[in-house]
């Protein structure tokens, strides 16, 4: 697949997507969004692809939504056109994906990273929601996902002051799953993605659905959903294979059936 703003490779069952607008520190314009929608749709519908890694450059995962593209927009264009709603197509992806963040993840860049199932970051990563400095505010989920990730006090402080959080603080605060040296970021993310890709795909989808439901439901409803999904996996061939493989002391080979 060839894209104007992305570089896409496959590594066996893992799709690696690199944001590629170095001249604008990977600022997210409408071309990036259109390309991301296409690549996520292709990933979702390809049963051979079982995990995806989204990364940027060493200097920037993404320095935000494209300020130059937005600067002259009217209320009617933003509200009437439901600006940023296209990102709902990415968060609707049911299959697992990881954000691998090095350098700046600011504004929409931080928000895009938080749309991932989890973030692996390099020691140089810097996260922030600086929109308030532009007299706006987070518009791609930051005011909601950051609160859920790191709690109200830190999220509110970051959104009101626009300050950046370095990688160590982001790990302590629970925004990122793991920190790795910058030179190893993509390899580590690919290794983690390969480990997920080796799991039964239906179990991965069900796990993601259940964990995501923790933010959308009561404890009782979430536990009921979890139990039903757990029960449902006993209808899969992969469950038989997974448990047989354990008993026979071998690796399971999963088909997504
Ligand atoms: C458009 C951007 C950009 C952005 C950087 N660039 N960020 N272009 N939109 N968000 C461009 C610069 O204009 C410049 O292009 C080139 O990338 C390199 O950036 P520099 O500023 O020269 O680099 P540096 O000095 O290293 O500073 C890096 C930086 C800074 C600290 C990340 O670029 C910065 O503060 N960027 C804006 C961060 C931000 O406010 N993000 C939130 C955006 S709003 P030229 O052509 O001049 O060389 C947002 C909205 C979300 O995300 C939803 C609510 C509306």
Automatic annotation (TrEMBL):
InterPro entries: ClpP/crotonase-like_dom_sf (IPR029045), Enoyl-CoA_hyd/isom_CS (IPR018376), Enoyl-CoA_hydra/iso (IPR001753), Enoyl-CoA_hydra_C (IPR014748). It comes from the Bacteria. The keyword tRNA-binding does not apply. Belongs to the enoyl-CoA hydratase/isomerase family. Transmembrane segments: none annotated. One of its GO terms (biological process) is fatty acid beta-oxidation. One of its GO terms (molecular function) is enoyl-CoA hydratase activity. It catalyses: a 4-saturated-(3S)-3-hydroxyacyl-CoA = a (3E)-enoyl-CoA + H2O; a (3S)-3-hydroxyacyl-CoA = a (2E)-enoyl-CoA + H2O. Could possibly oxidize fatty acids using specific components. Keywords: Fatty acid metabolism, Lipid metabolism, Lyase. It comes from Polymorphobacter multimanifer. The lineage of its organism: Bacteria, Pseudomonadati, Pseudomonadota, Alphaproteobacteria, Sphingomonadales. This is enoyl-CoA hydratase. Its EC number is 4.2.1.17. It holds the Pfam family ECH_1. The keyword Coiled coil does not apply.
């Amino acid at each position: 697949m060839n894209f104007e703003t992305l570089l896409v490779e496959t590594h066996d069952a893992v799709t690696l997507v690199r944001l590629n607008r170095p001249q604008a520190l990977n600022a997210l314009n409408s071309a990036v969004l259109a390309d991301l929608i296409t690549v996520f749709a292709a990933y979702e519908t390809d049963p051979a692809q079982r995990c995806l890694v989204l990364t940027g450059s060493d200097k920037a995962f993404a320095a935000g939504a494209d300020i130059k593209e937005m600067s002259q927009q009217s209320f009617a264009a933003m509200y009437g056109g439901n600006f940023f709603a296209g990102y709902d197509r990415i968060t609707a992806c049911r299959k697992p994906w990881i954000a691998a963040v090095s350098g700046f993840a600011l504004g929409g860049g931080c928000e895009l990273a938080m749309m991932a199932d989890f973030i692996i970051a390099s020691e140089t990563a810097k996260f922030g929601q600086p929109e308030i400095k532009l007299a706006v505010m987070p518009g791609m989920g930051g005011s909601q996902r950051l609160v859920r990730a790191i709690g109200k006090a830190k999220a509110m402080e970051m959104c009101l002051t626009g300050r950046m959080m370095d990688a160590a603080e982001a790990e302590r605060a629970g925004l990122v799953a793991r920190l790795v040296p910058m030179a190893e970021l993509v390899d580590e993310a690919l290794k983690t993605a390969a480990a997920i890709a080796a799991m039964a795909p239906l179990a991965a989808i069900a796990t993601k659905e259940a964990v995501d439901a923790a933010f959308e439901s009561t404890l009782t409803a979430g536990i009921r959903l979890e139990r039903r999904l757990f029960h449902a996996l006993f209808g899969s061939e992969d469950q038989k294979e997974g448990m047989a493989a354990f008993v026979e002391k071998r690796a399971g080979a999963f088909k997504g059936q």
